[in-house]
Amino acid sequence: MAIGTQQDSDDMLSEINMIPFIDVMLVLLIIFIITVPVIKHAVNIELPQASMAKVQDKPENIRLSVDADGVYFWNDQRVEDADFANRLTAAASMEPQPELHIRGDKAVRYERVAQAMAAAQRSGVRKIGFITEPAP
């Protein structure tokens, strides 16, 4: 027992007084009960909903593919470098202007993709996007 007599004054008490710990825990519980609703509703915002659906190409979008050898394909049709700039100029003059979606092979030199982007900029194409495959 924790209560001793004067005869066992040299013996130590072996029980821990739990009352101060319980008091501290009750005070913390009251603080958390009061502050959690305030924290939860501090800023009311509506988050956008995202879907994992694949984005479909519009028919007016231009799919520019660059294969591993650096050859350009305009909507899956091979195009030579001389004709490439003419097609970009024609696409830039369309209203509304179509988007240019670039699909570069991972083994192609970066230089070929950069040349395609520079030619698109010179032609006046304003919307350029890169198409990639999602990581597994």
Would you give an account of this structure?
There is one protein chain. With 136 residues, the protein is an alpha/beta fold. It is built from 3 helices and 5 strands. A 5-stranded mixed beta sheet has the order 3-2-1-4-5. Strand 4, helix 3 (110-123) and strand 5 form a beta-alpha-beta unit. The radius of gyration is 35 Å and the shape is elongated. The model has no long low-confidence stretch (mean pLDDT 79).
How is the topology of this model organized?
Layout: H1 19-40, E1 62-66, E2 72-74, E3 77-79, H2 81-92, E4 100-104, H3 110-123, E5 128-130
Parallel strand pairs: 1-4, 4-5
Antiparallel strand pairs: 1-2, 2-3
Ends apart, CA distance between termini: 65 Å
Q: What share of the residues lie within helices?
A: 25-40%
| Low-confidence region ranges | none
How many extended strands? 5
- Output the number of helix runs: 3
Order of helices and strands: HEEEHEHE
| Widest sheet, order of strands | 3-2-1-4-5
Structural class: alpha/beta
What is the percentage of strand-forming residues? 5-15%
| Rough outline | elongated
Please state the average pLDDT score: 79
Q: How many strands, what sense, and barrel or not for the largest sheet?
A: 5 strands, mixed
- Rg calc: 35 Å
